[in-house]
């Protein structure tokens, strides 16, 4: 009897230790077999021992063996229920919870803005052209009516690769490339990267984007230029934006103009505005009537055809559209900035 009590104690301790180690239903079944299996389970073996006991010892022995059996059964049952509810929780979905926000990425704000610009011109019947970023002196300057050594070349701080090879300083050379291949009517825009020897600061970058425009046909006048740019700028900014044309000079257009919009930051009302310098206007475009000499350079008869051209800095205009005071922000790859701009 004493031995039986000891055995029972030992089995209980063993059971209590093993049950804490169980991870899954399989382990649970193994422990159940170890203790309760009909033939070799520890509890069944205890009943074998029971048979060897004297009749007067049996009632107490039966009681303590059954206590162990019940103890084991209850604990195993509890654990089994724990496993089943855990599984149920796993399978239940709360359909009222908000979904996980997966960030898919998007075009860079400048690319996005470029696409908006393209869309406006596409609806006006323009098509999109592209050209090389490495240019020859001829296309970047000479054919655009900048003679060698002309001081106007100094306005474009050029990055040279070799004497005759350079990183294009504007998208204007693509005007020449297109006019060499296509005859009028021409109605195109040319978006792309341009490069200048500039130290980055809030309003200058050594690489930025421009969009060039060119229209050549019979009877094109300055009125077409004005109407096109007004339509474009109203679509890009808003219907009420104020626009002004100022006389200017470019070697490849005559007459030439610079186009300003009313300051988007102070609406022309703050004399101390850091964006417009208090003038109330910000310059965003160069434009003009294509110089007859440029048409001659590409064998288009200036007596028959005329046209207008314009060039606009995309980053600079985006800066005003998004009201950002430092253009370098666009290229610092800070996602917090990029997402904020895209959401506007
Ligand atoms: N290419 C000029 C620049 O980079 C901008 C420009 C001015 C383009 C007048 C034009 C134009 O097509 O007609 O400053």
Task: Provide a quick synopsis of the model.
With 344 residues, the protein is of the alpha+beta class. It is built from 11 helices and 10 strands.
Annotation keywords:
344 residues, alpha+beta, BirA Bifunctional Protein, domain 2, 2 domains, 7-stranded mixed β-sheet, 3-stranded antiparallel β-sheet, 11 helices, 10 strands, 42% helix, 19% strand, binds 3,4-dihydroxyphenylalanine
Structural class: alpha+beta
CATH architecture of the largest domain: 2-Layer Sandwich
Distinct helical segment count: 11
Name the ligand types.
Answer: 3,4-dihydroxyphenylalanine
**Uncertain parts:** none
CATH class of the largest domain: Alpha Beta
CATH homologous superfamily of the largest domain - what is it?
A: Bira Bifunctional Protein, Domain 2
Task: Give the helix proportion (percent range).
Answer: 40-55%
Describe the structure.
- The structure is a single chain.
- The protein has helices at residues 2-21, 25-36, 42-52, 58-91, 109-123, 137-140, 173-181, 222-236, 292-297, 314-321, 335-343; strands at 127-128, 134-136, 159-160, 165-167, 186-195, 207-217, 243-250, 253-262, 281-290, 306-313.
- It has 344 residues and is of the alpha+beta class.
- The strands form two sheets. The chain has a seven-stranded mixed beta sheet, with helices on both faces. Strands 2-4-3 form a three-stranded antiparallel beta sheet.
- The N and C termini lie far apart (85 Å).
- The protein binds 3,4-dihydroxyphenylalanine.
- 3,4-dihydroxyphenylalanine binds next to strand 9 and strand 10.
């Amino acid at each position: 009897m004493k031995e039986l009590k000891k055995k029972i104690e030992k089995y209980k301790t063993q059971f209590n230790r093993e049950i804490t180690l169980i991870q899954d239903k399989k382990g649970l079944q193994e422990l159940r077999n170890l203790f309760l299996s009909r033939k070799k389970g520890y509890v069944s073996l205890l009943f074998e021992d029971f048979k060897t006991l004297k009749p007067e010892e049996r009632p107490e022995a039966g009681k303590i063996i059954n206590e162990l059996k019940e103890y084991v059964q209850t604990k195993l049952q509890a654990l089994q229920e724990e496993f089943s509810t855990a599984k149920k929780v796993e399978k239940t979905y709360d359909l009222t919870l908000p979904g996980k926000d997966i960030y898919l990425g998007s075009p860079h704000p400048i690319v996005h803005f470029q696409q908006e610009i393209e869309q406006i011109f596409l609806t006006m019947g323009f098509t999109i052209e592209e050209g090389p970023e490495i240019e020859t002196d001829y296309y970047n300057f000479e054919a655009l009516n900048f003679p060698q050594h002309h001081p106007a070349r100094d306005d474009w701080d050029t990055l040279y690769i070799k004497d005759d090879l350079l990183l294009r300083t504007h998208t204007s050379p693509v005007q020449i490339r297109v006019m060499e291949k296509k005859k009028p009517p021409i109605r195109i825009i040319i978006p792309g990267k341009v490069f200048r020897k500039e130290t980055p600061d809030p309003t200058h970058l050594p690489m930025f984007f421009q969009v060039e425009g060119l229209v050549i046909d019979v009877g094109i006048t300055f009125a077409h230029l004005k109407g096109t740019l007004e339509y474009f700028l109203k679509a890009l900014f808003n219907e009420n934006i104020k626009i002004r044309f100022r006389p200017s000079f470019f070697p490849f257009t005559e007459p030439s103009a610079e186009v300003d919009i009313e300051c988007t930051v102070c609406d022309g009302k703050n004399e101390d505005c850091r964006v417009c310098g208090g003038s109330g206007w910000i310059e965003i475009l160069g434009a003009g009537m294509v110089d007859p000499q440029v048409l001659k350079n590409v064998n288009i008869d200036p007596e028959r055809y005329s046209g207008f051209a314009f060039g606009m800095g995309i980053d600079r205009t985006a800066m005003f559209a998004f009201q950002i005071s430092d253009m370098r922000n666009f290229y610092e790859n800070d996602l917090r900035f990029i997402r904020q701009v895209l959401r506007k």
